[in-house]
Amino acid sequence: MWEFAVGLFMIEIWKKSLLLTSLYGLVETAAIVLFGVRLGEWVDRFPRLRVIQASLALQNLCVFSATLAILLLLIRPYHKDGRGLIVFICLVAVVNIFGGISALASLATKISLERDWVIILAADQPSGQLTKMNSTMRRLDLACTLLAAVFVGFIMSAMSVVASAIGMATWNITCVGIEYWLLLSVYNGTPRLHEEKASYHLVSEMDIQKLVAQNSDVLFKEDKAPCKQSPCPNNLNSFQLSLALLNNHGTFLWHKVRTLSVFDGWKVYLRQESMLAGIAFSLLSVSVLRCYFLKS
């Protein structure tokens, strides 16, 4: 709902220009590009319930705060000169900052649910259940997106833009409790979601070499016969060697060597076999009709 309405609000605030709308889209996208890697690490590092609690609360609080700033701009239009210009710029900055944070919080919720919770829920189910669950969630997401656009458009047309902003602020405060209650019910009903996540981080080439050198006596023992499994440790690449290091109990352990930076995250992505397919798929959405608020 917010993604569709925010562009219309910006157009209503400054009817003679699309600058505010473009600026908001730029800030939101830049926030995801710059902090998406860190966000994924944060989701992997903290317990599942804590991630959901923080992301839901932060997302709804930021949308509520941004909506209040939009209400101030709609109720009392500020002149684009003198002191009014300063207030106008500050309020627009508040909308963009909180909008970017809400986009990150929404992404954290999506990663946690679609890339973690659903996989665990489908682990003990018959084959093909994961695909069905993913397709069902996708249908629900598209249906909610469509209904939200219809709802916002109806309120703006039948009542006013200010009324729709007030309704959106009220909705975000009231629905967060319902969302959390539903997710908490799923969490309490699935014991496997209570299990601690496997701790892992990607490592650099230099760190891998150090780890392999320190554990060479464990990985490569001359008195052992050549392994019969494929791939053999001697044929593993540097990344796989880092995963083969053993802890004191003799089990496999993902070593925490260093925090992956933003640029390292992009380097890892560019080395994936699915990189070109991912870029090609993303280019399908490059259109002036991509923005929700322009579809009306």
UniProtKB/TrEMBL annotation:
What function does this protein fulfil?
Answer: May be involved in iron transport and iron homeostasis.
Q: What InterPro entries does the record point to? A: Ferroportin-1
Principal location class? membrane
Q: Does the keyword Transport apply?
A: yes
Check the record and name the PANTHER family matching this protein: SOLUTE CARRIER FAMILY 40 MEMBER
Q: Name one GO cellular component term.
A: membrane
Q: What is this protein called?
A: Solute carrier family 40 member
Kindly list the places in or outside the cell where this protein is found, as annotated in its UniProt entry. Membrane
Membrane topology qualifier: Multi-pass membrane protein
Q: Does the keyword Membrane apply?
A: yes
A single Gene Ontology molecular function, please? iron ion transmembrane transporter activity
Give the transmembrane region(s): 18-37, 58-79, 85-107, 142-163, 275-295
Q: Which keywords label this protein?
A: Ion transport, Membrane, Transmembrane, Transmembrane helix, Transport
Source organism per UniProt: Ceratopteris richardii
Recorded family membership? Belongs to the ferroportin (FP) (TC 2.A.100) family. SLC40A subfamily.
